[in-house]
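Internal QA ticket QA-208
Title: Verify multi-chain structure generation after dependency bump
Assignee: T.L.

Test input:
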Amino acid sequence: MRAFDPIRVLDRSRIVAPPGFNRWLVPPAALAVHLCIGQVYATSVYKTALVEHFGVGQTQIGVVFSLAIVMLGLSAAVCGTWVDRNGPRKAMAASALAWITGFCVGALGIATGQLWLLYLGYGVIGGIGLGIGYISPVSTLIKWFPDRPGLATGMAIMGFGGGALIASPLSTRLLSLYDPAYDSSVTGSVPAGSAVALLFLTFAVVHALLMTYGAATIRVPADGWKPEGFDPATLKSKPMVTTASVSARNAIRTPQFWLLWVVLFCNVTAGIGILEQAAPMIQDFFRDASGVSTVSAAAAGGFVGLLSMANMAGRFVWSSTSDVIGRRPIYLVYLGVGLVTYLLLALFGQIGTALFVLLAVVILSFYGGGFATIPAYLRDLFGTFQVGAIHGRLLTAWSAAGIAGPLIVNGFLDAQGEPGSLTSAAYRPALLTMVALLAVGLVANLLVRPVAEKFHESAVLRDQTATNQGSRR
Amino acid sequence: MRARVAAGWTLVGIPLAYGVVETLVRASKLFTG
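Actual output:
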């Protein structure tokens, strides 16, 4: 009888799907991981509690979230090749281990009043879990759904947006449970730090269960598997879709990789431009003659909720649409229509709340769509060979945008006054800068062409063989 | 296999539906509050 080896159970060779495996079991496994790590976008719920608990400023606590996002990009870039080589189960297990350890170390930091432990736990260790978890199911989904890669990655990456929708209200309820003195409906009520520590431990347990389900369920297709009725020859007929393979090492030497880096950077920065200031922005845009906003704080909170929905829905809807109209055309929509929408928002957004909300919803849906469609765009250009590793490297654009977006918006707004007391005109320079950024992204997308044959693995091997033979002579 | 697929989607669908409903309730305040 073969001894049970807990490490080998995670190996890629142990998770090859048997005949008859239903590929629709893979998206829920991917979603289980993304729904958990999407919690990172719900940190604002307990931000004030941590500020009061540690007796520090908003910036010092904000660093925890920024660290996590920077580590997401870095770990995805550094670990991408490891993820592709070792398969999704080992990657999901590693992600779960880091993410849960991050919560536990973070909870210890809160309980003992040591902020550096929160930085190390949630920011660094948890951030590594975020990066590995984010890319872990992507290449597997693309291989299971060669006929609809946009739909497949859209489903998983929608989960990342959905994670925030779940964690935000759930955190509020749990904080009320752990600190009975806390009432979220009362302005100025702040939960105790001990309640946040307990919240972290609760997330550690619940996420451990969900992510374990994901790791246990995920399977990779057997070599040569294809969905019933799918003809790979249909891919060859599309000029922007390759059937060749490009390694991650070669991909970053191509102009296409860096053009897509610029595309993602511009699209994400533009989205963050609105997300960063959503609640004060809608209040500032609509003020009466006496300077009082006609939009209440509750309505502004509702606006933030609506943007979250648009962000999540855009991931699924637009990414799925890209399977029909193609990847480059859909980015023309994200960046071209996004540019026009942004311009309308900057120049005419103050005309009415309905118009303002409509334009912002469209922009945020394109922001989500840009995230969800990029893995399928990479698959089209570089093939499935190391698409996970290439995707990981491209996510550094997200980290850079996470720094640049708030810097641009806050830089312009700081020069105008305090958000919450501004008018629509004060936002115009920041919004027009985003329009210019989207124009740069649009040009970058227009310049994308199929990857030159010299970067294909077959050509690289041919060159290496010729070099070796030459050196023997 | 179909039961496993249904169970998998239920496992992730319930929390997702909870999040969507809670967010829609919150978003409705944009039009009512």
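Spot checks passed. The domain at 1-13+21-223 of chain A is CATH 1.20.1250.20 (Growth Hormone; Chain: A;).
Status: verified.
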